[in-house]
Write a structure and sequence with these properties.
Helices cover 8% and strands 41% of the residues. The protein contains two helices and nine strands. Strands 1, 2, 3, 4 and 9 form a five-stranded antiparallel β-sheet that branches. A hairpin with a 5-residue loop joins strand 1 and strand 2. The protein is elongated. The mean pLDDT is 95. The structure holds zinc ion (ZN).
Amino acid sequence: MQVKKDCVVLMHYTLTNDQGDVLDSSEGREPLKFLQGAHNIIIGLEKAIEGKQQGDTFDVSVEPEEAYGVRHEQMIQKVPKSAFQGVEDLAVGMSFQAETEHGPVPVKITEVVDDVVTVDGNHELAGQRLHFKVSIEDVRAASQEELEHNHAH
Ligand code: ZN
């Protein structure tokens, strides 16, 4: 069957960035399973997969707008070290939940200079064009329960 809304798709994939670095891959793991049309995966990939069938392999490039969005400079903030009370050895790459008026947002430390810590709340893949190599392993109709849960089982 062809991939369409309310199908469960199993796919193998390799994700690379513009520089050709592999960012993620299902190689050596179970294929990724998702419910088509439920936004379980990024919209650009969902669009590219529509109409494909088992055995199809293809490459697709997805612009940031249809992947993890563009980067927002206002989501990068400088905060004093004193805001991290109880945390020892603040270092670049550490992740925290920041409390905001919209609820907790994951942020990552991108710079520590003296008493000033720069945190970035952008998704780490925001602003990036993503390149996928995809192999469709299986396509089946979703069960009633999967449709109710809005994800594949
Ligand atoms: Zn469920």
